[in-house]
Amino acid sequence: MSDTPAASTHADRVPNSITQVGLMLRYTFNDYRRSRRFAILMAIMVLIGGGLTVALAYYGIGSFTASGTVSPSSTAASLGFYSGFWGFASDLAVIAGIFFGGDAISGEFQNKTGYFMIPNPIRRSSVYIGKWLAALIAGTIALLVYTGFCVGNGLYYGFGIPTQFLESLAFTWFYLVAALGFTFFFSSLFKSSAYSFLVTFLLFFFAFGIIDLLATDLAHIEPWFLLTYGAGIIADVLMLTYPAHTSTVQGVFGRGSANAPSFLTYNPTIPEGLAIIAVYFIVTAALGLLLFEKKEFN
């Protein structure tokens, strides 16, 4: 009876899209978990978090908080502590995105592994989404390791967990989501992993900063078109008073004597920052999927 047409049809049935995404997520995450890059990223998180912990113990909490006070009941001291410790979070989110998204798609072309998927009845969208979700889980784990150091020190020194930090943590995770969408786009654009790694790294850590500088100090326009500008809410929400949308500084590129000319600087509002991050994720993730769907394995 096992050879009946009904049984044969059931055995040959192609898994649906959700099942395919789940399988790709599981296998990709297992690859990430066993990879050297995962261990390196964990080491980076531990080194930075542990290094700051040692610095706190050696120099004292008073030199770490921007307010100059160590009173745990002081809101300024609490936010100063979390602002100082959490100041690396946005960069770490980008690094996690580059580590896990830089070659997620380009590697299929460079390593020729994509050729083995062509004869199989698996949708490219399932591959793309499954890999993206696996990268998000791996990046989230790395971010949580660093969060553990931050919260652990905050509780140890009696600062508690202010609401502003929870908001900043949520914004950082959302930024990780957008960073992965961005890196997956460039990973789909190039067939070389080296190119996708290099371009995304240079954009996040050099190009966006230069464009921001030119837009605000020279063109005097708000850089609302930059992902890194929207991510400014991660640090701004930890300030005692959320900064005004516009402010004035003196000196060339924001530095100089009191007689230097004044320049207008911009700070994203929380709704604006979230909107910028969301648009970047939606647009880049969709474009990355479209490129992957259209690109041929030849």
SSE order, as H and E? HHHHHHHHHHHEEH
How many E-type strands?
Answer: 2
Shape category: globular
- Integer average pLDDT: 85
Given helix and strand content, the structural type is mainly alpha
In this structure, how is the largest beta sheet organized?
A: 2 strands, antiparallel
Residue share in helix: 55-70%
Side-by-side strand order of the widest sheet: 1-2
The number of domains is 1
The radius of gyration is 23 Å
Summarize this structure briefly.
The protein is mainly alpha-helical. It is built from 12 helices and 2 strands; from the N terminus they run H-H-H-H-H-H-H-H-H-H-H-E-E-H.
Give an overview in words.
This protein has one domain. By secondary structure, it is mostly helical. A two-stranded antiparallel ribbon has the order 1-2. It contains twelve helices and two strands; from the N terminus they run H-H-H-H-H-H-H-H-H-H-H-E-E-H. The relative contact order is 0.12. The longest helix has 33 residues.
Keywords:
two-stranded antiparallel sheet, mainly alpha, 298 residues, 12 helices, disordered N terminus
Topology:
Layout: H1 5-11, H2 17-34, H3 36-59, H4 75-85, H5 89-101, H6 106-110, H7 124-156, H8 163-189, H9 193-218, H10 227-230, H11 233-236, E1 246-250, E2 262-266, H12 270-294
Antiparallel strand pairs: 1-2
